[in-house]
Amino acid sequence: MSELDVRRLVRGDAATARIMVEMMARVFEEDYEQVGQDYVDDLLGRENFWAFAASIGPEIIGGLTAHTLPMTRSQSSELFIYDLAVRPDHQRQGIASRLVLELRAAAAAEGIHEIFVPADNEDVHALEFYRALGATAAPVTFFTFKD
After folding, report:
1. Domain spans in the chain, listed from the N-terminal domain onward
2. pLDDT over 90 for what percent of the chain?
């Protein structure tokens, strides 16, 4: 078996990113609308968007997306992990931990030292996972506006 490779996707990696996002939607059992290559490539070229893909050989088996949020209380930014998923046949093998570790290292290199991620209270596995990584839970309720 090939070694696990985790890397940040950048402009020019749209084909890989599209495969990763489709895989993540399947893991989350969500509807998926494939977006165009140009759209994804533009997204990957933005400094405030982060995408990390985990692969073994040519297979994408995990992914993480995050967004940089500039703060107003100081001249700093925080990072918001939006999605983190690993294919079921590769879960519980340290892949999600490695994705978060790579994100944290890359963020620290850019001077970002605070990262947050929402987890549904019913998602016991996610809650245990983030606690095991040393994250601290904060009681927050997210509200969604949809038109």
Report:
1. 4-119
2. 79
